[in-house]
Specification:
Chain A is mainly alpha-helical. Helices cover 57% and strands 3% of the residues of chain A. Chain A has a two-stranded antiparallel ribbon with strand order 1-2. Chain B is globular. Chain B has one domain (35-161). Classes of the chains: A mainly alpha (141), B mainly alpha (167).
């Protein structure tokens, strides 16, 4: 009986460790669903997001954006699990969901950053397909 | 050595140390509580401004500068930092209320700025320039570990908490 509190504590820690990513995943899904609906509305042949396309988007160097930020990797490093750095020298938490579990769980925040950074890197807004692919890639990392 | 000569030697040493401190740019006004600036306490300001750079203390620029900065977020030093209208309003209100000339009393960091000027960068203010001139090698700001004059914490470790005593 003496072991009970200890076991309970362990169970709680395990529960918390399992619950955080599960809850984050649950918050991420509606955001992806929203992009999926928009992608389908734009193209009836839309057949789901692709982590491979998301990786290409992440690694590609574009010519139409700002000279200092031709690619996502300019600030985020080419490793999705790596700690990035802003132009002002501040660290950016890894984009990979395995490293930063609460990434892509706040719709307003997700839209804010795609809105800012797609213009800076691609020189235009990202499409719903690109946003969904990007998140799908980062969720797989 | 008698205690008297020891006391004299000690006094001289302290005197020289104080002189040395004076020569490194620490002025009398800094001695009152040191180089401390009230840190930001507003959560929206901490989150939104702090996502990309150190959370600069609003006391380092006059209100007119903060208004100009917040009106130009779509091109914020070459970066798109656009925010929703309600966040822009809330952040501007906080920065203006805590600006270096709030209440019509300019502090030592903004008093040297010409009335018609609204510098967008803290590092363009006469106070900042004076404090770093001669003390910091110009090339130091290009060091990859520093990267930018906006990265105060690279040298002032307690900058975000408003402590600039360490120079």
């Amino acid at each position: 009986m003496k072991a009970e509190p200890k076991r309970m504590g362990l169970a709680l820690v395990l529960l918390a460790a399992l619950t955080v990513p599960v809850l984050a995943g649950a918050a991420r899904q509606p955001i992806l669903d929203g992009y999926a609906a928009a992608a389908k509305a734009g193209d009836a042949a839309f057949a789901g997001f692709s982590a491979a396309r998301g990786e290409t988007l992440f690694q590609t160097k574009f010519a139409a954006g700002d000279a200092e930020t031709p690619a996502c990797t300019s600030c985020h490093t080419d490793n999705p699990g790596g700690t990035g750095r802003t132009r002002a020298g501040k660290d950016i938490a890894p984009m990979a969901v395995s490293k930063t579990p609460d990434r892509y769980t706040d719709r307003e925040k997700v839209e804010k950053w795609f809105g800012r950074n797609c213009k800076g890197v691609l020189g235009r807004e990202c499409t719903a397909l690109e946003k969904g692919d990007f998140i799908t890639f980062m969720a797989s990392k | 050595m008698t205690w008297k000569t020891f006391a004299l030697a000690a006094t001289t040493t302290i005197g020289l140390a104080a002189l040395g401190a004076g020569m490194s740019g620490v002025r009398a006004d800094d001695d009152k509580g040191g180089k401390r600036v009230r840190p930001v306490t507003d959560q929206t300001v901490i989150e939104e401004c702090g996502a990309c750079h150190m959370v600069f203390q609003p006391a380092m620029l006059p209100a007119r500068s903060w208004v100009a900065v917040m009106n130009g977020l779509a091109d914020h030093f070459g970066e798109n930092a656009a925010l929703s209208d309600d966040k822009v309003r809330a952040i501007t209100d906080y920065l203006v209320a805590n600006a270096g000339d709030a209440g019509g009393r300019p502090n030592r960091m903004v008093s040297g700025i010409a009335p018609g000027e609204a510098p967008l960068r803290i590092s363009d203010t006469p106070y900042w320039v004076r404090e770093h001139r001669g003390e910091v090698r110009p090339g130091a700001f290009e060091d990859p570990r520093v990267k930018s004059k906006a990265n105060c914490v690279a040298c002032h470790r307690g900058a975000e908490m408003g402590s600039y005593d360490d120079d």
